[in-house]
UniProtKB/TrEMBL annotation, chain A:
SMART domains: RPOLD (SM00662). The lineage of its organism: Eukaryota, Metazoa, Spiralia, Lophotrochozoa, Annelida. Belongs to the archaeal Rpo3/eukaryotic RPB3 RNA polymerase subunit family. It is found in: Nucleus. This is DNA-directed RNA polymerases I and III subunit RPAC1. It comes from the Eukaryota. InterPro entries: DNA-dir_RNA_pol_30-40kDasu_CS, DNA-dir_RNA_pol_insert, DNA-dir_RNA_pol_RpoA/D/Rpb3, RBP11-like, RNAP_Rpo3/Rpb3/RPAC1, RNAPI/III_AC40, RNApol_insert_sf, Rpo3/RPB3_RNA_Pol_subunit. HAMAP family: RNApol_arch_Rpo3 (MF_00320). One of its GO terms (cellular component) is RNA polymerase I complex. The keyword Thylakoid does not apply.
TrEMBL record, chain B:
GO terms for molecular function: DNA binding; DNA-directed RNA polymerase activity; metal ion binding; ribonucleoside binding. Its cofactor is Mg(2+). This is DNA-directed RNA polymerase subunit beta. Residues 37-410 form the RNA polymerase beta subunit protrusion domain.
Length: 287, 1132
């Protein structure tokens, strides 16, 4: 993102973190849990699992206490029981050899379509993003039997609804060499920066800035007395290197689009309010 | 041929080579702890008691005879402490595990059995294995079921393999017998008394009695002071009573130096003035001054009584054979000599606080005192029964076994351990608070509890001496770990490698000493003791004799000890000033191992360490081969110890194993403690004990009164060797939080922390709080008992009523159910009639019951975690419930880093408002930089660097005290990973999106969540319960009490003149009460009637505090009449 005000870049970052809706497990009905993990902790862990489902296909829930419907919920079931493997030898203490189902992972989730959902979505549309998230460990005789409901929500209410692992930006570093640096000093200079930032001209042995973008701004040069005054480090204030890491519920592209949409609705709302302010001068300005 | 000079030069070169540093010397430590364990002192001491000491006690009290029958006797032949078991019903017992005891509220004990030989009539009978009581067992002692078990076996017994043991389980609670610090027994101590005069005192302690003998000065004469003597006895008379009649011999015994003769002259003169010249006269003099015993005159005459007193009471630890008082006389003479020397040379005055003069009393010694007392009482009771029953003629013959009751010894031991009141009759000792409930807040707190030392004397006195840090504490007691406030410096903790000795047999040591040229006291002329040519030799405070070449004796002793011919815990040291060699083998001395250095070379070589690492060598081997030896505080003083190899000089005798072992367990938690201001380490020691985390591997099987657990505990990124040794990484208590040191929002003043909302929601600082509830199903005298009834149903809806929702059909709540305020957890009912026996008509099935349900009382609901139904020793049913709450951090919860930097959460900020670094990292915690300058916790800065390097490299870092990873290495790791070498990052504000104007110190720091949480503390009340007597609001959060407007607040209101507010706060909102007062007689009437005047004409109604009315009535009941004088408000 180039040539914009930092507040705009920051708005995108903030919206991505907390205002793009996703689906996340919000209600867990524990039918049986004889595992070592406490019910609340188990529910909390399950809640944080990213679910691949398009939130645009769902509505927000109207009230908390209503029955989940096909329009606002996704149901998963989890039923795992750990048993001892019959053919295990007594020698090993490796639980993989001794027990069946001793690790409960997201692979054990079973999607149960509500109402017409089976027709609306294809098989691969709704599932946990990863199949190998460890939820609990079991030992023979222990059992977990749950019903889970995903609802649509915003990152504002709980971190589990946040669609991104992180959304962040940094300013483009700018390195300028005030004087030509050659020979040993140039090699040292190269070492002070991340790989590929500084290049050395093969013929002249002179250092030049190859790719400032790759610098991670450790300011290491400034420690060296002999280089300190030959280098100027700065950043370009309106060049943002944006980095969005999705949890996997939606592709990053969709997230950005949605973020833009959210920002647009916000702006529209704000303009509306401003318009109304003109009509009703009595109102407070900052509303 | 080499010339002499060449050889010398070669040697010189060789000697001046720098001593090579021993790599991984610290690896001796885990090996040491493997043999010794962290709480080995306790276990060793208890083992010694149940295996050795108890047999000695039996031998000392092994015969019971009766005055009634000369033929009767009972002789104890042997005593055993068995394996732990429980008597489930009469005569049926089964082995028991400690965890079962914890759960079922029973005592982990084993039977004490004796072999006896006794007479029944004319028969002589031998009985073996006769139980006389039960001994509470220390966990992991030699008789405990846990000893020598592997982790798997321990897991099967529901026991944590990391738990150190060393405590008792008495009636289900874990009890620690704290280490008691005392002044050493049987040693002369010269000190300044309250009047500023010098005294020399000895506390003699033998199995029979304990007494203190003091030699004091008065008008430059010496006197002997003792409890059994009504007045002080001039020293010359004492010496004469000992049989040293010649004045010259007396002086000669003390010394022939001029100053001594001068000092003694007035004393000698005094005895002449009193006309006492012979032993008989002296004894008569003393006999007249013996304090009269309260009851009964002794059959002896005064002289014999005096002789008896000198024999038994005064300096009772000095042995006297055949009434020959020579040794005692020599001992007394030496005491006087020390006193006179102290007058001339202040340096010979002893320091009471010197650790070498201290002895630590452990569980075994305390229990042996108690057991001997109980055993003596048991025997005297048996004797009493024999005396009473034998004279009576009976059909059956008197059989003493029938009268042996087990409960006396059992109850005595159990009661002492569970209450902590140690009362030893024969020493007139009465101590409270000897035991404490083992604190299980965190693993560290339990460990720290086991190493704690309390000192018995001087609790509230404002003296700085005993509280201050003693240089002799080095390596023995932790310099940092002590509480703040009242008990500061009095409660101490052991350092990592400290060992506490147990009593050793004196016989072989005496024999050895005599073989090495010590001349026995009894053979020596009494005057020889003061000869400048000889050194006197002491063994455990008693004079053994004299020696001419003391160096040879000391050297030989050390050689013998290193060779393993005598115990490694025997210590020998010389005091040149007093010209004495002291050998100690008594219990309670603190000591620690050192590497022996000879000829500038440590005897432990790299090869030995390598063998250790390979596992072919153990710590014991180092001891056996004389590479390492134990030194106690006194001997340490006589050695030249280097801390590091490069400090070794020609004089060096020993080398420190590792400097960080001078610290205790709790400071081991602090990374880089040597960079912190010292009080910060002390604060952390106190706080580490409050941190939540994990307690033990068996924590989920425990039902404790309270237990705090972290949901996601993490081992710290910056560890220390100590942490590895105590296996803190297996049972951690804290989380690595990413910290940004910056100010944010103003909600971070006064050490408050800012938390990231997303971090909290993802599990940071999330904790589980377990609480238990015990329900006893009592049995009553009339064969009735409590019952539990199923839930009640609503008659109209046919559903379980609301408050019974959590109940199962059996009337006890179900695991997994949520209980809310006032809900019933156990629907218990109690019979209405419990005392009177049931009459015939009121048979069992018609019993009437009263509801006594156990309800949940807390506005915050809990989940039922576990329900246990069992029975305890009294065979009544016991129901234990474990309740669970999960809590997320909230504003007001307390957190702390590992550097005594505590703070409460001031604000929880959404992630988007948090600042973020270039890499996109948001901090979990923001801390205000003002926390640093005044606290000077540089260790925390280093920890941050270390942790940051650790996460970047994926390797744990070490912040071991006096060592640890160097800052240069950490910086380099940061540079290598493209970070700034100072640990400061470029950070962007989350609110504005603009970069912050400063680089921010940014990285992970280990944070602990402390047990203080707002939910447990917040309290407010509008109206609520009142106390029955005064009708004032109740006090305290637990009783939903009011908030007190105290005296000082009251003063403010008075000063301000807010009289109506005062009236409202102190009366109207509290205990306003309408009374009818007769304005004529001034007394309180009722219903508009004055009972005094028998009229209603002058009665006025007014308001006053109920407490005031109560006071008037109470005064009236004591015949004091308070009268109220009433006036109309408009009268002037």
């Amino acid at each position: 993102m180039v040539h914009i005000d930092c507040s705009v870049a920051n708005a995108f970052r903030r919206i991505l973190l907390s205002e793009v809706p996703t689906m996340a497990i919000d209600r867990v009905c524990i039918l049986n849990n004889t595992s070592l993990i406490q019910d609340e902790v188990l529910a909390h862990r399950i809640g944080l699992i990213p679910i691949k489902a398009d939130p645009r296909m769902f509505e927000y829930r109207s009230a908390d206490d209503t029955e989940p419907t096909e329009h606002d919920s996704i149901q998963f079931n989890l039923k795992v029981k750990c048993t001892r493997k019959s053919d295990s030898s007594g020698e090993t203490s490796d639980p993989d050899h001794l027990y069946n189902n001793h690790k409960v992972t997201t692979a054990d989730f079973k999607w149960k379509p509500l109402g017409n959902q089976a027709n609306m979505f294809k098989k691969g549309d709704i599932h946990p993003v990863h199949n190998d998230i460890l939820i609990a460990k079991l030992r023979p005789g222990q059992e977990i039997d749950l019903q889970m409901y995903c609802f649509k929500g915003l990152g504002k209410t709980h971190a589990k609804f946040s669609p991104v692992a992180t959304a962040t930006y940094r300013l483009l570093p700018d390195i300028s060499l005030l004087e030509p640096i050659k020979g040993e000093l140039a090699k040292m200079l190269k070492k002070c920066f991340a790989n590929g930032v500084i290049g050395i001209n093969d013929q002249t042995g002179e250092a030049y800035v190859k790719d400032a973008r790759r610098d991670n701004c450790s300011r290491e040069v400034l420690r060296h007395e002999d280089l300190k005054n030959h280098v100027q480090l700065s950043r370009i204030r309106d060049h943002f290197i944006f980095n969005v890491e999705s949890t996997g519920c939606l592709p990053v592209y969709d997230l950005i689009c949605q973020a833009i949409e959210v920002l647009m609705t916000k702006c529209k709302k704000f303009i509306d309010i401003l318009d109304n302010v003109d009509n009703e001068p009595e109102d407070d300005d900052d509303e | 041929m080499e010339t002499l000079e060449e050889v010398m030069l070669k040697d010189k070169v060789k000697l001046s080579e720098p001593v090579k540093k021993l790599e991984d010397k610290w690896k001796l430590l885990p090996s040491f702890l493997k043999v010794k364990g962290l709480v080995k002192q306790h276990i060793d001491s208890f083992n010694y008691f149940i295996n050795v000491e108890i047999k000695k006690i039996l031998k000392a009290n092994n015969l019971i005879t009766s005055d009634a029958d000369e033929m009767f006797y009972l002789k104890y032949l042997n005593i055993y402490v068995g394996k732990p078991d429980i008597e489930e019903s009469f005569n049926i017992s089964k082995p028991i595990s400690p965890h079962e005891c914890r759960l079922r509220d029973i005592t982990y004990a084993s039977p004490i059995t004796v072999d006896i030989e006794y007479t029944r009539g004319q028969q002589r009978i031998i009985r073996n294995n006769l139980p006389i009581g039960r001994m509470p067992l220390m966990l992991r002692c030699s008789n405990c079921v846990l000893t020598g078990k592997s982790s798997e076996e321990l897991a099967r017994l529901n026991e944590c393999p990391i738990d150190p043991g060393g405590y008792f389980i008495v009636r289900g609670t874990e009890k620690v017998i704290l280490i008691q610090e005392q002044l050493s027994k049987n040693r002369m101590i010269v000190e300044v008394d309250r009047k500023g005069l010098l005294t020399c005192s000895v506390t003699s302690s033998t199995h029979e009695r304990k007494s203190k003998t003091v030699i004091s000065t008065k008008d430059s004469r010496f006197y002997l002071k003792h409890n059994s003597l009504a007045e002080d006895i001039p020293i010359a008379i004492v010496m004469k009573a000992y049989g040293i009649e010649s004045d010259q011999e007396i002086v000669h015994m003390i010394g022939t130096e001029k100053n001594i003769i001068f000092a003694m002259a007035p004393c000698i003169e005094e005895s002449h003035r009193l006309k006492i010249f012979t032993q008989l006269q002296a004894l008569a003099y003393i006999g007249n001054r013996i304090r009269q015993k309260r009851f009964g005159n002794s059959p002896l005459n005064k002289v014999d009584e005096a002789r008896q007193t000198l024999h038994d009471l005064i300096l009772s630890h000095v042995p006297v054979e055949n009434w020959n008082f020579k040794v005692k006389a020599i001992y007394t003479a030496l005491m006087i000599r020390r006193l006179i020397m102290a007058y001339d040379d202040e340096a010979t005055v002893d320091d009471r606080d010197y650790v070498g003069n201290k002895r630590l009393e452990l569980a075994g010694q305390l229990l042996s005192l108690l057991f001997e007392d109980l055993f003596k009482k048991f025997n005297s009771e048996l004797k009493k029964i024999a005396d009473m029953t034998i004279p009576k003629q009976r059909a059956t013959q008197f059989d003493i076994i029938r009268h042996i009751r087990q409960d006396q010894i059992t109850n005595g031991l159990v009661h002492a351990i569970s209450s902590g009141n140690w009362s030893i009759k024969r020493f007139k000792m009465e101590r409270a608070g000897v035991t404490q409930v083992l604190s299980r807040l965190s693993y560290i707190s339990a460990l720290g509890h086991m190493t704690r030392i309390t000192s018995q004397f001087e609790k509230t006195r404002k003296v700085s001496g005993p509280r201050s840090l003693q240089p002799s504490q080095w390596g023995m007691l932790c310099p940092s770990d002590t509480p703040e406030g009242e008990a500061c410096g009095l409660v101490k903790n052991l350092a990592l490698m400290t060992h506490i000795t147990t009593d050793l047999n004196e016989e072989p040591i005496i024999r050895l000493a005599l073989n090495f040229g010590v001349e026995d006291v009894n053979m020596v002329l009494s005057g020889d003791f003061s000869s400048p040519l000889v050194y006197s030799v002491f063994l455990n405070g008693n004079i053994l004799g004299i020696v001419r070449h003391y160096e040879r004796l000391v050297q030989a002793f050390r050689a013998m000890r290193r060779a393993g011919y005598i115990s490694e815990f025997v210590s020998i040291y010389t005091n040149l000033k007093l010209r004495a060699v002291y050998i100690s083998s008594d219990g309670g001395r603190v000591c620690r191992p050192y590497i022996i250095v000879e000829n500038k070379r440590p005897k432990v070589r790299q090869q030995h360490i390598d063998e250790l690492v390979q596992g072919v060598r153990e710590f014991e081997d180092f001891l056996k081969e004389g590479l390492v030896e134990y030194l106690d505080v006194n001997e340490e003083n006589d050695c030249f110890i280097s801390v590091y190899e490069d400090e070794i000089t020609t004089e060096t005798t020993h080398l420190e194993i590792e400097p960080f072992t001078i610290l205790g367990v709790c400071v081991g938690l602090v990374p880089y403690p040597h960079h912190n201001q010292s009080p910060r380490n002390t604060y952390q020691c106190a706080m580490g004990k409050q941190a939540m985390g994990t307690i033990a591997y068996n924590q989920r099987n425990r039902i404790d009164t309270v237990m705090y657990n972290l949901v996601y505990p993490q081992p710290p990124l910056v560890k220390s060797r100590t942490l590895d040794l105590i296996k803190f990484d297996k049972l951690p208590a804290g989380q690595n939080a990413t910290l940004a040191v910056m100010s944010y929002s103003g909600y971070d003043i006064e050490d408050a922390l800012i938390l990231n909302k997303s971090s909290v929601e993802r599990g940071f600082g999330r904790c589980l709080v377990y609480r238990n509830q015990k329900i006893f199903m009592k049995r009553y005298a009339n064969q009735t008992c409590d019952i539990v009834k199923g839930p009640m149903y609503d008659s109209t809806t046919r559903k379980v009523i609301d408050i019974h929702k959590a109940l199962d059909t059996d009337g006890i709540c179900m695991p997994g159910e949520m209980v809310e305020n006032r809900q019933v957890m156990v629907n218990k009912e109690t019979p209405t009639v419990t005392s009177n026996p049931l009459s015939g008509s009121n048979s069992q099935d018609k019993l009437e019951y009263r509801k006594t349900p156990v309800t949940y009382r807390s506005p915050i609901p809990s989940y039922i975690d576990k329900v246990m139904i069992s029975s305890n020793e009294e065979e009544s049913f016991l129901i234990k419930l474990n309740l669970r709450q999960t809590r997320t951090p909230e504003v007001g919860d307390k957190f702390s880093s590992r550097h005594g930097q505590k703070g409460v959460c001031g604000l929880i900020v959404p992630q988007e408002d948090m600042p973020f670094a270039d890499t996109g990292i948001c901090p979990d915690v923001i801390m205000n930089p003002h926390g640093y300058p005044s606290r000077m916790t540089v260790g925390k800065l280093l920890e941050l660097m270390g942790s940051k390097a650790a996460v970047l490299d994926g390797k744990f870092r070490y912040g071991t005290a006096f060592g640890g990873d160097k800052i240069e290495q950490l910086s380099q790791a940061l540079i290598d990973n493209g970070y700034n070498y100072l640990g400061k990052d470029y950070v962007t504000s989350g609110v504005t999106g603009e970069p912050l104007s400063a680089y921010i110190y940014f990285g992970p720091v280990y944070y602990q969540k402390l047990k203080h949480m707002v939910t447990d503390k917040m309290h407010a009340r509008a109206t609520g319960p009142r106390a029955a007597l005064t009708r004032q609001p109740t006090e305290g959060r637990s009783r939903d009490g009011g908030l007190r407007l105290g005296e000082m607040e009251r003063d403010c209101l008075i000063g301000y003149g807010a009289s109506n507010l005062l009236l409202e706060r102190l009366m109207i909102s509290s205990d306003a009460f309408e009374v009818d007062v007769c304005s004529k007689c001034g007394l309180i009437g009722y219903s508009g009637w004055c009972n005094m005047c028998k009229s209603s004409s002058y009665v006025a109604s007014m308001k006053m505090p109920y407490a005031c009315k109560l006071l008037f009535q109470e005064l009236q009941s004591m015949n004091i009449v308070p009268r109220l004088t009433l006036k109309k408000y408009n009268d002037s």
